Amino acid sequence: MTERNIAQALNDALDVALADPSVVLLGEDVGRTGGVFRVSDGLQQRHGAARVIDTPVAESGIVGAAFGMAVAGLRPVAEIQFMGFSYPAYDQIVSHVARIRNRSRHRFTAPMVIRIPYGAGIGAAEHHSESTETIYAHTPGLKVVVPSTPYDAKGMLLAAVADPDPVIFLEPIRLYRAVKGEVPDGHYAVSLDEAELVADGTDVTLVGYGAMMREVRRTVEALAAEGVSAAAVDLRTLAPLDLDPVVASVERTGRCVVVHEAPRTGGLAGEIVASVQERALYSLRAPIERVTGWDTVVPLRRSEHHYVPTVERIVAAVHRTLEA
Amino acid sequence: MTSAAEASTSPIAISIEKKLEMYRMMLDARLFEEKAHKLFFEGLVKGTSHLALGQEAVAAGFAAAMREDDLTFCTYRGHTHTLLRGAPMDRLMAELLGRSTGICGGKGGSMHLTDVTVGAMGSYAIVGAHLPIAAGAAWAAQARGTDQVAVAFFGDGATNIGAFHEALNLAAVWNLPVVFVCENNLYMEYTPIGAVTAVPHPAADRAAAYGLEGVILDGNDIEAVYTIAMRALEHARSGNGPVLIEAKTYRHGGHSRADPGKYRPDEEVEAWLQRDPIPAFRSRLEASGVATATLDQIEAASDAAVEAATEAARNAPYPDPTTLETEVWADGGSAWRN
Q1: Are residues A242 and A172 part of one domain?
Q2: How far is B294 from chain A (nearest CA, A)?
C-alpha cells in the first residue's frame, strides 16, 4: 500500500496497465509532458514513445485512431484534455465506438477507454469546467464511470482497460490532488457496475458521484453535527446505473437528495429520481430533492461557487425533506 | 509512390486468370446492385441505399490486389467493397433485406455492412469518420508487425471534412501502412464537387499538405486501378508510409435511391456511360483474344449467383425482436440497464 492522491493513483494504474503490450496511451501532450494534469507523467520515458503517444490536437483523430486500434486488437487508452474538448470527437464516440458491437453482432468490438477530466475546478469556464456526462450515459453501448477516491480511481481504471466495452472514464478535476488515500501496489480491479454505500444513516439518503462526493461527504458530517443521520451513496458508475444501494437505503430513510454539478434539466438526477420512485415510492416520506448545477454555462472562477452545489445547498435540501 | 504519369506508363503484367477474376468481380458487383435497386422498388430493401453502379472498377481493382488479411474501410456506398472483399453474396443480400441471415444479422442494413471475417471492417455512414479509424487500424498493424495494410475508400465530398485532414496528418506523421482512396465521382451528394472545393482535384491537390504525392487515376480503367493498387499496397506494406489516391469515376445513378440525379447535364452522363468500366474491359479482353463465350459464361454465372442470393434472402426470416436488446454491451442487452 502507498498513500496516493487521485492523479498519482491513475498514473500508477496506467503504469500497471502498460505491462500488457496491447495497451497504448494516446492523446495531446500525454507523452513528453505527461498530460495536461500530469496523469501520465513519466510513462513515456518508462514505456517508450510507441506506447505512450503524443498526438496532434485533433480529438476526432485521437478517438477515431484509438477506435481503429481497438478493432484491430489493441487496448487503447485515449485522453481528451477536458470534457468540452470531447465534442469534436462526439461523432466518433457516439456514432461508431458505441455502436460497432451491435452493428456487427459482437464480431467487431471496441475495448477502449476514453479518459476525460471533467467538472469545475480550474476556473476557466465552459469547455474546461463542464460536466456533460449525461450525453454519454444516454448512449447505448458506452459505459460511463467516475471515481471519487484514489482506491477506486486506480481499480476502476484497470477494470476499464480490461473491459470488453468502450468506457468513458471521467476524472474529477477538483479532486485530482485534493483527496489522498491508501492504494494497493500492483494490479487490482474495482467493479464497473456497483455503486457503494459510503456512509450509513437512518434519516436521509444522499446520492452523488465524482467530484461532488467531497461535498456529499462533508454534508454527512455537517448533518451529524446537528443530529441528522445521513446515508450516502457514491454511484461510481453512471452507465450502468446501480441503484440497488440507493433503493435499499431509501427504504430505510424515506428521504433522498440527489446531487450533481451537471445542469439540472435532463441531468442524471432526473433519471435517478424516476427510478427510485418507481421502486420505493411507498417508502418515501418527502418528495425527492435534486441539488444540481444550474441550467447555464459554467462560469469563470469568481462565480464558480455560485454554480457548483455547495454543502449549504445540500443541507438546505435535506432540511426541506425533513420538514415535508 | 511513383507519380501518376510514371505509373500509368509502366503497367505491370496481369495474368489472364487475374483479368477474368476482375471481370467476374465487376459483374458480380454490377448485377448485385442492379438487383438491390429493383428490390428497393419492390419495397424489400428497407431504408435507403447508395449504389456504386459505374464505379465498380475501383472496388474490384483494389480487392483483386489486396492481401486476404488486409483491412477495408468504406462508406455507406459500400455494397461493392464489402462483396468484393469476399463477404458471401447471399448473406449480403439478406442484410440489405434486413433478414436474420444477413452478415450483420439484419441489424446493419445497406449502410452498415461489416464482415470482419473477410477484412471488411465496416461501412461508415458518417462522411469521413472511417478515415482516422483506418489510420488507427494501420497503427495497430504496424505495432503488431502483421504487415497488413488498411485501405480506406471515400467519396470526393469527404475531402472537405475535418476527419479527412486529421487522418492524413496522423497517417503521415506516424508513417502508417494505410492507403486512402478517393472515389471522385464528381458529385458531393447533389452538388458538383468543384462548386464547393477550393482546388480542382479534391484529394490529390491536398496531398502535398501532408508530404504525400498526389496520385490521380482513371478509376474506370480496372487495369490501371489494379496496377496502382498493387504499387500503393507494396509501398505501404514496405514501411514507406501512407498513399493518397484520387480515382476519377462516375456514378451512373443518383446519390441515393430517392435521387434520380437530374442535376447532371445529359451530355456529361452520356459521356461517362460511354466509359462504363465493364463493357470497356470486356472489349479489351475480347481484343486480346479471350473468347466471347468465356465472357458470356462469367456473366451467366454472376447472374445465377445474384438470383440464388436473392432467392435465399427473400426466404430468410426477419430477426427476432428480442435481438433489439442484444449485443449492445458485451454482457448482451440493456435489460439490466432498464
Answers
A1: no
A2: 38
pLDDT in tens, A233-280: 999 999 999 999 999 999 999 999 999 999 999 999 999 999 999 999
Residue B230 belongs to what domain range? 4-310
Of A183, A217, A243, the residue at which a domain comes to its end is A183
Could you tell me if A179 and A204 lie in one domain? no
From chain B, pick out residues whose CB is under 8 angstroms from the CB of A74. 139-140, 143-144
Whether B320 is in a domain gets the answer: no
The answer to whether position A296 is within a domain reads yes
Q: Is A88 an 8 Å CB contact of chain B?
A: yes
Q: In chain A, which residues have their Cβ closer than 8 Å to the Cβ of B137?
A: 68-69, 71-72
Last residue of a domain, one of A183, A211, A229: A183
A161 and A18 share one domain:
yes
Question: Does residue A95 belong to the interface with chain B, where contact is any CB pair within 8 Å?
Answer: yes
Average predicted confidence (pLDDT) for chain A: 96
Asked if A107 and B116 come within 8 Å (Cβ–Cβ), the reply is yes
Q: Does B111 touch chain A (CB under 8 A)?
A: no
Contact criterion met (CB < 8 Å) for A165 and B129: no
Domain count, chain B: 1
Q: CB–CB of B330 and A239 under 8 A?
A: no
Range of the domain at A300: 196-323
Q: The domain spanning residue B19 has which CATH number? A: 3.40.50.970
pLDDT single digits (tens) B78-115: 999 999 999 999 999 999 999 999 999 988 889 999 99
DSSP alpha helix (H) spans, chain A? 6-17, 43-47, 59-71, 90, 100-103, 133-137, 150-162, 213-225, 244-253, 268-280, 301-307, 311-323
Judged by a CB distance cut-off of 8 A, whether residue A278 touches chain B is no
Q: Is the ipTM here above 0.85?
A: no
Chain B touched by A239 (CB under 8 Å): yes
Look at residue B221 and give its three-state secondary structure.
coil
Q: Where are the beta strands (DSSP E) in A80-173?
A: 113-118, 143-145, 167-172
- Distance from the Cα of residue A227 to its chain's centroid: 31
Q: Rounded to whole angstroms, how far apart are CA atoms A256 and A284?
A: 8
CATH of the domain at A57: 3.40.50.970
Whether residues B330 and A109 touch (CB distance < 8 A) is answered with yes
3 state SS of B230: helix
- Cβ of B167 and A67 within 8 Å? no
Predicted structure pTM score = 0.90
Q: What does the alpha-carbon distance between residue A285 and residue A18 come to, in Å, rounded to a whole number?
A: 50
Q: Assign residue A298 the CATH number of its domain.
A: 3.40.50.920
A187-224 pLDDT tens trace: 999 999 999 999 999 999 999 999 999 999 999 999 99
CA gyration radius for chain B? 20
pLDDT at B180: 98
> Residue A107: its chain B contacts at CB < 8 A?
114, 116-117
Same domain, A141 and A93: yes
